[in-house]
Amino acid sequence: WLNTLQKPLGNQQGSKCGFKFVATHVDFYKTYKEIEKDKATVKVGDLKHFESLADAGSGKFLGVLRMDVDELNDLCNIGLQSSSITKFISLSFDIELFFTGYFHELCETEFIDNIYVGYSGGDDLFVIGAWDQMVELACQARKDFQLFTCKNHDIHITGRIILCKETYPLHLAAQQAGELLDKMAKENEQQQKNLQ
User: Fold this and answer.
1) What are phi and psi of 53, to 5 degrees?
2) Which of 4, 78, 121, 165 is the most exposed place for a label (fewest CB within 10 A)?
3) Is pTM beyond 0.85 here?
4) 66 pairs with which residues across the strands?
């Protein structure tokens, strides 16, 4: 997908402009059938309401997905300890490229409907959508990240999904998913210490 991008255009004076990947996928009402329930307040082209996202899944729940790269600090501090700054920058750029460029493309091509990308960048992501699609998206992102890292067993991504009703405060669901990720990271760290 990276090779299919168009080159950045220069401005009118001939100087060059760069670009930055940004994962910004949202879903819109595309047909009148999708908006039958909310005819009075919604039209084709409007952003989908959380209620519509939840209704799209089985069980009518929203899924709030948080994922991040495990133990990235250890990877940088220990794995790249004797490496040059160039290798550190290259690793940082590559991980950023996965989360902003590739993940955006994944959402735009394979997970088009019923999701909003809250953010995706650095080494983590936050997505809202129909709960069953969040499970599929998390599995696909993990599989693709393994391929992206050439199946390196020292670099992996994990995630947590919170299920909630569409009226539940989104910031609380995001916070809870983040807390579960942190708790899992601490438990993994403790397990590794116990094995040593």
Assistant:
1) -65, -45
2) 4
3) no
4) 126, 160
